[in-house]
């Protein structure tokens, strides 16, 4: 019982990384139109902000660095310093007065997010009991839902009067902005600056909690074992092993394939959803954020249910159910159209259900189970780099397909529906059977003594 309480405690502390990951993405998304107006940005500029952010390339770069560092120096090393980098990135965004500064802030924040992701999922899995591994990953994923909900609620109540009524707390924004002599479009975007300030505060809290965590016992054991039989190849030996072992290659193709095709869609929706609701859907900034916030309430509830059942049911069919909701969501919105309120509401509901039974949850669970401890984080870093890097490219392509005012949404939606169908097939057909097994047992079954 004591171990279970400790694993839950450490899961909650580490889960703040997910809160800040999703929070950074949605904070940028909720204020995207405000920054666009303030700085006179084009859709191409918005594409670049998405491409180098926590949503895509920034996280990709950070993940491959963080995965290596977490395996080389331990999971705790990441938690000791990484949140400080995140706070620097968020501070840059808060103080941005031009596109270059905003872009650099998004990049630094994204790199920090990427550094923390492989360590977080690995640490949670290694510190979980056999029967609670999926539950703890699910709890971590709930933080990925709570972050956007909080950010969108803040964005809603602080929203300026753009195409509709202002948020109830916008007078407070005006008061604070006036202290700095801010007015016009600069005052409108001040609400977004305050949203990022909230992330800065949470990052500071996360840093204080995470730097006190104990090191992963499984990583320590793997490190001690490796020291008894040193191998050649120096610090990059784990990367070499990843790409020479057949089991590793097949596993990375499976995991990266199912996660990439899902993330190509979700990276776009994570960053552009309120913007799409405003342009193609015709909603105000306030109502776009409000609808998205309602969606995250459903996501959190669904994720909670997922965490209760994932260790008890057939994971293959649970995966299939979740992705099927996503496929149906795109079918409906492509047929009905996003310009109708019924289409928006049906899409929002189904999209929330798929995000609650998320491919990312299964990816986090399986990726932390299917590799040996000595290069478990590095493997995740490589895959995360590939997935988020390609998502950055797709984000740039998407904005040109979508158009300045959403005239290409139907074509973009059809493409994203196809991505989801591919993810459904890959994950359902090749889902591993790991439920109820220890990490050591899974490793022995898959690798024997060759790891």
What fraction strand?
Answer: under 5%
Based on DSSP secondary structure assignment, what is the total number of beta strands? 0
The average pLDDT is: 85
What series of H and E elements makes up the topology?
HHHHHHHHHHHHHHHHHHH
Describe the structure.
- Helix 2 crosses helix 9.
- The chain is globular, with a radius of gyration of 21 Å.
- With 451 residues, it is mainly α.
- The mean pLDDT is 85.
- The protein starts with a helix and ends with a helix.
- 79% of the residues lie in helices and 0% in strands.
In short:
With 451 residues, the chain is mainly alpha-helical. The protein contains 19 helices and no strands.
Q: What are the salient characteristics of this protein?
A:
globular, 0% strand, 19 helices, mainly alpha, 451 residues
List the SSEs and their pairings:
Layout: H1 2-30, H2 32-39, H3 43-51, H4 57-73, H5 75-94, H6 99-126, H7 133-157, H8 170-179, H9 185-210, H10 217-228, H11 237-242, H12 246-279, H13 285-309, H14 315-336, H15 341-356, H16 359-369, H17 376-402, H18 409-429, H19 439-447
Helix pairs in contact: 1-6, 1-7, 1-9, 1-12, 2-9, 3-6, 3-17, 4-5, 4-6, 4-17, 5-6, 5-9, 6-7, 6-16, 6-17, 7-13, 7-16, 8-9, 12-13, 12-16, 12-17, 12-18, 13-15, 14-15, 14-18
């Amino acid at each position: 019982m004591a171990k279970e309480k400790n694993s839950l405690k450490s899961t909650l502390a580490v889960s703040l990384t997910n809160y800040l990951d999703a929070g950074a993405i949605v904070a940028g998304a909720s204020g995207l139109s405000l920054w666009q107006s303030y700085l006179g940005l084009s859709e191409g500029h918005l594409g670049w902000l998405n491409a180098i952010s926590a949503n895509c390339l920034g996280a990709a770069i950070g993940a491959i660095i963080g995965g290596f560092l977490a395996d080389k120096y331990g999971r705790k090393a990441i938690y000791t310093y990484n949140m400080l980098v995140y706070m620097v990135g968020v501070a840059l965004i808060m103080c941005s007065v031009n596109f270059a500064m905003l872009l650099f802030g998004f990049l630094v924040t994204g790199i920090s997010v990427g550094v923390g992701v492989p360590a977080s999922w690995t640490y949670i899995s290694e510190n979980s009991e056999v029967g609670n591994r999926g539950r703890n990953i699910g709890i971590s994923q709930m933080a990925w839902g709570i972050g956007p909900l909080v950010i969108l609620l803040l964005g809603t109540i602080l929203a300026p009067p753009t195409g509709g009524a202002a948020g109830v707390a916008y007078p407070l924004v005006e008061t604070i902005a006036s202290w700095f002599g801010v007015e016009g479009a600069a005052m409108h975007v001040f609400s977004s600056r305050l949203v990022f300030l909230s992330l800065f505060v949470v990052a500071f809290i996360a840093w204080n909690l995470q730097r006190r965590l104990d090191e992963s016992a499984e990583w320590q054991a793997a490190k001690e074992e490796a020291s008894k039989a040193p191998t050649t190849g120096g610090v990059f030996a784990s990367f070499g092993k990843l790409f020479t072992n057949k089991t590793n290659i097949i596993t990375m193709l499976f995991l990266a394939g199912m996660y990439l095709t899902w993330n190509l869609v979700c990276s776009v929706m994570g960053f552009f959803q309120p913007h799409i609701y405003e342009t193609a859907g015709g909603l105000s900034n306030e109502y776009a954020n409000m609808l998205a916030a309602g969606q995250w309430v459903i996501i959190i509830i669904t994720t909670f249910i997922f965490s209760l059942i994932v260790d008890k049911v057939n994971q293959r069919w649970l995966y299939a159910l979740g992705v099927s909701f996503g496929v149906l969501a795109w079918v409906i919105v492509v047929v009905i159209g996003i310009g109708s309120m019924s289409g928006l509401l049906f899409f929002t509901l189904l999209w929330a259900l798929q995000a609650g039974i998320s491919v990312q949850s299964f990816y986090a669970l399986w990726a932390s189970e299917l590799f040996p401890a000595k290069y478990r984080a590095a493997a995740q870093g490589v895959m995360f780099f590939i997935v988020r890097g390609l998502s950055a490219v797709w984000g740039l392509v998407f904005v040109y397909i979508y158009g300045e005012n959403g005239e290409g949404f139907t074509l973009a939606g059809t493409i994203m529906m196809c991505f989801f169908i591919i993810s459904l097939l890959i994950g359902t057909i090749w889902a591993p059977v790991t439920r109820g097994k220890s990490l050591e047992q899974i490793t022995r079954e898959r690798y024997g003594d060759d790891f």
